[in-house]
């Protein structure tokens, strides 16, 4: 989880890296000492904190974890109705955490604007525009949710403690300032006062994670209650169906308004949950970037072009429309009667099986295209991208757990109503589709955008260092292929010094050298219809389709269409409580997976 | 969790990294093209798998996770007595996994010995001697455990399924071959057939993790049953105390022998658990190393010297003796009567508080010594070390969770018997001590051994590349300070080509250059009594003391002395089931933490 921030190499160390492997026809020309006169003298101790990097990291991460487990325990205590621990204790704790984060953010923003003229390093990969856009959207809904909660508090003010009124107000303020903070500073690479800032950022990460866990818990309790109500309607008296009710013990003054508000709150929770987790991932990347030495990587500006993706978009939008229809029908039918429930389940499974098969096929096609055009990946250091990959695989495990549960239940159950058999292909497809999709996304985000590769070839022969042409490939091979040279002139000195120390240009380099220096251009074995723009178009269609499908598959579980509950088979095999615990633990990750995959696919789409 | 293996840079790419930051007095001399004639021509495609590194990693890690969650679900099903899932299903699954791993290991070992003459890269940091030693010790005990289980099966053979006899036999064979495998191949850096080998290694990692989880579950069930028996003795009828009994429904032929065997099994489980987790960490490092490009890092041979650590050793051995005494008394007294239980608890808390305070003080002293002598850390890439740090922080979270639970319970409980107050300082100290100890260990394992730093200074001015002295610091600054030059002549070509591409020599480099090139040797500000050998002696005493203390603190929870159960307060506040679930989930990590910290401290001790 916690990783060394790596590569703290001084400019000079890299500069003197010059043992040449010179035998063989493809060797580099001997470097003719291409000096860049304005490259920086490292400031003596300027970048060094009083505590070494690794230690400061451990100090802060341990602090964050301790705060986090404390919060988790309070959440657990509330969830299990622990004696003496009320909701107000939990809210007090969360409010205190938010207040602390607010103060820290204010200090940081104030300090930053005071030192505005100082050159600040930025990680161009972090806090992408679309990410900040979507977080703003979710934040707006979170603030609306806050307003509804305040209304709820006013309605029930007789019998609610003051903390339940303070919490939403504080949460709204916190959301506002945090979005402002993320817009301005998500790309920062903090270099000064590292220890203090590290504590602030990690505190923010775990505060958001706890707010996420709080949202998830509220949502789960709500879903569970709805499920129990359905069971009661269907007449299952044998399962322990005590509603876990947290509604206040007094009357709300305008009753209809209150009911509307309570309902509204639960429709907005999924967005709040996404907001919190997105914020914490952005802050985590900020934390990983503290004290990092980066090369000023020229990040290709992402472009959103909508031409030529008609097929993907139409198919995706059809899927989206179908999903909404299915969810509405499902929610109307489920729990009304046994036959209606069963038909709703069968409808859902058939819909999901079709969609998952299409998605799997699209993913496979994408991977196949990548495999035909053999090209090695950019494996340079990039905390934002690494987090994306890890989250994809990690959160997919949540739904794999649920799927295995369903499969096991089907295999072990004594009698199988007809609808349960649809569950088997559905569960298997959920696993397979995520496996394939992760491969596709991870390969996509590790490929360099096409345009850059072109640039490299152009820049190969003559590389310009400080205006003078130098017959050497130094700049190129130091940074990741093609990232640096175009900005040679206007690069800030601090970044420039670090240019030659990036790892990871290896294979790409090697391959290109084989073709350009060795004189044998490697044959591109793509079928003609898959070359150049056509290939790009196919990939973009796939990405667009998968993007819309992931949005589609996010909707059902987020808004209460959970066949894992309603199916009933798993509850019989594992027992009601164990299965509910498994689903409630794994489902939030499964839901987050869809939104995160959609976000990654959007990025993939823009980069193709 | 899953991280890019990074730095796949070709030798040539690094060789051409030669932009020089030349302004300023401390700049490197211009590199005079120091070629090493025997450095390798990269074999065309020789090191490249058909699938890119990152993709192969994702392919295999996803496979591993899917197998793992399937196993977890079977374990859960068995634990909650799911309908239709018996112990034999679980054991079948585990046996199949072990068989698969066995076949893979045989294939790998066979292939390795067939290609023995090929040069093989090794990661000198992985699979240290003491690690292999301790794994062998634990493996021997695991095999004894296997024999006892076979005896148990024979005794109850009438009513046990065949799988319960096959499983221990297979487990013993698996253990034997795996230890042999780890002795011979834990240091391997696999470069060929990467995809197939990646699947094999990740399969082995997760097989061992599942065997670990299986051991933990058995042990937890046993502990829980013992706890429930005590509660029944003490007359707590209000808590649901249904024994979760898995003893067979028939009689064992020689009854006394059978009882002895059942008891023996539970005393050996803790060692089996440690064996499985150790094996999986070693295999994980092997997996992380697949396809890695390393510099041939000269690893200083660790030396175990026992002179001059009398104080630490005596204090530590005293702690160990005291622990054993306390555990014996505790286990005799607990659950006999209310007063005896309380006195046992008070005794345990007083003992633990004393020990933890001493350990915290020792850790602080160690950190203080490091802080006085300001020295930046070696942050080069090292999967084994990174895993060590992550595990320390990650597994400590388990006990932080339990500690917060205790603290919350004390704060929220309605009435406090006298002995519960001792729980408060104990829980706080558990958190603080782990926080401090982690800082000490992580800083220690990131410091270079003293001797190496000396070497660097000697090697600074003249670096020999292929026998010819070159006035350049190329070799040195490319690799991590001082790791390469001494082996310049006899280095294998593949390793040599990669020499100049390691990241992470930065700060150390910079600092040394300031002192050696800038002409101002940095003042060492250590008090005289803490210089050189004296300082080393103090640090070694601290490490020895902490090592023995961690072994001491491993014993109580591993052998059934768990005040978190017996204390009773948490169970009242959280409820019996929720608290038992929390403890059973967190305790295995807490126990593993102690053993892992002890292992790390042993390494620290040998390196000081």
From TrEMBL, chains A, B:
One of its GO terms (biological process) is negative regulation of type II interferon-mediated signaling pathway. It comes from Macaca fascicularis (Crab-eating macaque). The gene is OTOP1. Residues 27-40 have a biased composition (Pro residues). The keyword Ion transport applies. Residues 1-47 are annotated as: Disordered. Keywords: Cell membrane, Hydrogen ion transport, Ion channel, Ion transport, Membrane, Transmembrane, Transmembrane helix, Transport. Residues 7-26 have a biased composition (Low complexity). Its main location: membrane. Belongs to the otopetrin family. The chain crosses the membrane at residues 63-84, 90-109, 130-154, 166-183, 195-213, 266-287, 308-332, 344-370, 538-560, 572-593. One of its GO terms (molecular function) is proton channel activity. This is Otopetrin 1. The keyword Membrane applies. It is a multi-pass membrane protein. InterPro entries: Otopetrin. It comes from the Eukaryota. It is found in: Cell membrane. One of its GO terms (cellular component) is plasma membrane. It catalyses: H(+)(in) = H(+)(out).
